[in-house]
Amino acid sequence: MARRPAERTRAAHSRPRPSQTRFRENRAVKRHLQTNTLAVATTLALIGFAASTASAAQRTDLNRADIAGIARENAAVAKAGLADTVHARHARSLGLDAESRLVLLARKESLGVRNHRYVQTFRGLPIFGEHVVVNEDASGNVRTLFGQKVAGLASEIPNRAVRLNQARALRIAKSAGLGTDVGFMRTSNEKANLMIYVGDDGRAHRAYVVSYFADTLAGGSPAMPTVVVDADSGAVLNQWDNLQHALIGTGPGGNAKTGQYEYGTNFGFMDVTQSGTTCTMNNANVKTVNLNGGTSGTTAFSYTCPRNTVKTINGAYSPLNDAHYFGSVIYNMYNAYIGKPPLTFQLTMRVHYSTNYENAFWDGSSMTFGDGATTFYPLVSLDVASHEVSHGFTSQNSNLTYSGQSGGINEAYSDIAGEAAEYYMRGTNDFLVGAQIFKAAGALRYMANPPQDGRSIGHTSNYTAGMDVHYSSGVYNKAFYLLATTAGWNTQKAFQVFARANDLYWTASTDFNQGVCGVQTAATDLGYTVANVTAAFTAVGATCGGGGGGTGTVVLNVNLPAASAGNVTSNYTVTIPAGTTKLVVATSGGTGDADLYVRLGAAPTTTLYTCRPYTGGNNETCTFNNPTAGSVYYINVRAYTAYSGVNLKATRTP
Q: Do the first three CATH levels of 27-54+160-241 and 58-151 match, i.e. the same topology?
């Protein structure tokens, strides 16, 4: 997190660990669930064999739908002047049978993109576990579909009243879920919803999906069985324990700079595992380890429920509590903002590392935090914790090399993720790195003004080879700040485009300019305003298609590899920064005959292009006056005859 040349950021053949259970299951309940599920599975296997000649329900992956065909059908309906609604259009797109319907669950609009989430019903009953998502542009044209539709239900589902009522289904579900302990358990929050359930074997049933909370009379052994009961035969079709949280942990957090706060009062409860009177800092997503001054250890820390006060050190009230709570915040932030967890395995937060250790690090498998000394309080603030976790995200995705410009981007991304975690938890963030654990006034780094720390840079023109990555990170930190504070943007949206670029488009060797291309592409994917991204990076001297860094009017300058006749040697793009009045793309030098092709908005071909000089030799030029900010020009060079030694350059005029 701080400047640390020895920091390791890449996984060394790290092996994902299985997630740990988030609660102690009642052993009798667990044993009964396993035994009963095995018996049910065996029974269903026999039934499936005996009924193998019967037709089954069919699931269809909607992402493979013929979008062009849907558009033609909608156009035909409109041309005929027939009345049409959005709902009817979507149902028609799926080709539902006469007894099936779509029921809208949610409709969201974002920057011209509309998402409609439906549940499919059959004869008025919702189909369990299946949603349909229709994604449209602003004009109502279907862009893509997600989810699955279910067909063939008429031959599977009898058209008569079900034989079981809710009360009977609930009794069956309690017996199935609790077994012989049913008389010793108290239950609450009981639900029994009649639905269509399609098993993994494709057989469809009318079934009650029953759920309830259960615990012993004395408490301490919670469970939340979910049981699927056939509404005609009473057979148990499936069951599982759906208890996902045990949020009871309390205790102090913070340090002398932030002031003391309380988990369970000022903030939420800590997500811990409870076994009797023992609480353990371990759940499916986060495990927290007390190294207690050592340098190794993997055992989750335990204490007497519900309040942990271990331990006050170096001005902090309980670094263990902070690390564990913030770990869950970070995990949830990633899921909420980009739809995936930060790591492919459980987050391990190792606290109280060594003695007077003034740093924090990611070692390829876990996040480790020192207790600080004279410069820092224990390094477990939310932004620092998110910083270290996000080094793991980078290593598992783009794997940006931790040196040079890619190292600066690597370090900046972790700083950016720290701000995103603050924004997710508090609804605001300070654009300061490590301010809450930095003992002096101020912060470790300043995103709005990177040079304020006396060492970081805020523009590519100040970059020098060999610069420490913690200082070169200022370039992307400043771009992030500018983007997040642009009208129509916020910290969440800005983080989303950087995270998507890291996930999908950046590579190990990405430099300052190449990284811009990835962020622009991510913004396009998400429907965000690309011109704002371009402007933020232009302000720090980075442009998609530019050289290796720095500033100036030349935005692309490459010596093309030699090519034989008929070949396309290279493809390039130039994205227009705000304030550009002219773009000039030119080839020159060398021998042979190279032909320049440029097209606005898509890759050129021999028949589709915006500019093709088509002259003899290699000196060709395309000029574009007043190009639109954020627009993308695609460039390729074709060998009319073999050529070598040709230079390609693109220059913009402010």
A: yes
